[in-house]
Amino acid sequence: MTQIVTFSELMRWVRCPASWRFRYQLRVKPRPPTPLTMSWGSLMHAAIERIRDGEDGRELIAPWLGERTDEAQRADQNPWNPMRDSADYVENAAALAKAARWHLDYYTAREVSRAYLHQALWLEQPFLVSVPDRSGRSRGDLWLLGVLDEVSMLEGDPCVVERKTTGVRDLRKFQTGLDHDVQVPGYAYAVQELLGLPRLPAVEYDVLRRGMPATPKLVGNGSKRSPYRLDFRVKDTTWGQAADHLARERRRLSLEEPDALWDEEKIQAYVDVLGGPASWQDRYQYEIRSQQVLEWQRTVTQVARSIRQAGRTPGHGVFADRSECSRWGCAYKEVCWAQGSWCGIDAFEACGYEIEEDNNPTRHREVYQGKPVLTTPALVKRAREMGLDAVEPARSR
Ligand code: SF4
Fold first, then answer.
1. What is the pTM of this model?
2. Which residues fall within 8 angstroms of residue 159, CB to CB, at 6 or more apart?
3. I want to staple 81 with a disulfide (CB 3.0 to 4.6 A). Which of 16, 69, 75, 219 is the partner?
């Protein structure tokens, strides 16, 4: 029998099998409020999609903040809610809304200048492909359903653009983590299959650091012993902010202290570092190696097998290693920690959790949300028979 898996399902299993069981087997909805990191990522994705369509993505910020505030107020009425500290939550959401505005202003300007380079082929495009076996041939029984952020034509060749929001403060660290990313090799493989390419397409990571850069601090007192320079906290600011701030301060101080001295060498060193990978928004060209596709295939196959086994024995619990438990922010922790990861649906109902209707076999609709799902011609008929009604063969477009 064919099994369809999505990246969110796979990643939930990898992070915690018990949380997978609650979400996908018992169909317990996570408690509001939505974790801010996740919700901010979705806001930025949606806003950037609008910008790429030539619209103003910033219009989405105010409704996003309104929804977060409502969610937090509802959660605050439940004393058991694991994320009920709505004062902090609302304050952080407001700070992130401000950051979203800063990022989108900057992004809009940047997109205008690079639009001629990338011609978008697909934006937020759902896809369905068959996972390859070890020899690289498509297998018939395991399919992957996902959404491609963007596929563009770059100098005549397709390029996968993957948008990431990250809390990592040092983007060099972020770059080293890319070698272990199992999602993007899967996307590159999907584009290769959908477009019938002879090799994996190019990949670009489009990265936004979560939050907003701080204005750099001017230090020193302008004397010979301590000339003015910028405080070397490169992780908290950007080149643009530093340059603007420097120009403003120089103008102001040239009137107030016309004899003040500036340490030009240190200022230049500061600006040079900001021009590197410590930026708040950046794009990385990345080459996916065939070894990474193999690793991706192995992970998907192993996790899908575990999910299938767990699905065959719905009465059994899925045990989680508590020492690995990332319960901070886990929407199920109040029940899981009181009753154990093998508890039944009644424990959640007693705590007032909402349980989803039985929506199989079309539970994956939430992934593609009404958009046509592109697939290879070989999968169209079977996918429609399985209830995925909106499938289209990719190469006929
Ligand atoms: S509380 Fe911990 S073990 Fe339980 S579902 Fe959440 S992350 Fe998993």
1. 0.82
2. 118, 151, 152, 153, 201, 202, 203, 204
3. 75
